[in-house]
Amino acid sequence: MTSVLVLNGPNLNLLGTRKPEVYGHTSLADVEKMCRSEADKLDLDLVFRQSNHEGQLIDWIHEFGREVKDGNSIGAVYNPGAHTHTSVALHDAIEGAELPVIELHISNVHNREEFRHHSFISPVARGIVVGFGVLGYTLAINGLYQLSRQGN
Ligand code: DQA
């Protein structure tokens, strides 16, 4: 079965309790359930991961770049959290592994602090989903699936 990776960066394990006025009350475990249900509908196997550690995230990006090349995965929906605004290493990992990525943010980063307006990930992302709350995860899975079907 073909997989889709949903990857979450630092602090997203706190979803549901961290700044609920910005990120909502849904926990990461509930987001995983929503993603699983969307993946099931599309006949995809969901791989759902979160880490607070940049090196771990880089290793997973490399792993899934290989999976996509082997025809076993369509790529990743990735919420890089604060790494979005800081990490050249994650930019290089996505580019180097040639992993198709949909960058996702729960909040609309563009109507927040200025330091959130720049993304190191966007130039190497296939698409971007911003500001739809946790619903964005299912939209992004669907979008990645459509792109992969078009052979893009
Ligand atoms: C976030 C936005 C980032 O600026 C922030 O550092 C996060 C979450 C979002 O999902 O809206 O951790 O990626």
Can you summarize this structure?
It is built from five helices and five strands. The chain has 152 residues and is α/β, with parallel strands linked by helices.
Explain what the structure shows.
The chain is an alpha/beta fold. The protein has one domain: 3-Layer(aba) Sandwich (Rossmann fold). The chain is 39% helix and 18% strand. It is built from five helices and five strands; from the N terminus they run βααβαβαββα. A five-stranded parallel sheet has the order 2-1-3-4-5, with helices on both faces. Helix 4 links the parallel strand 3 and strand 4. It is globular, with a radius of gyration of 14 Å. The two termini are 20 Å apart. The model has no long low-confidence stretch (mean pLDDT 97). 1,3,4-trihydroxy-5-OXO-cyclohexanecarboxylic acid binds next to loops.
Task: Explain the layout of strands and helices.
Layout: E1 3-8, H1 20-23, H2 28-41, E2 45-50, H3 54-69, E3 73-79, H4 88-97, E4 101-105, E5 127-130, H5 135-149
Bound molecules: 1,3,4-trihydroxy-5-OXO-cyclohexanecarboxylic acid.
1,3,4-trihydroxy-5-OXO-cyclohexanecarboxylic acid binds at residues 11, 79, 81-82, 84, 105-107, 109, 116.
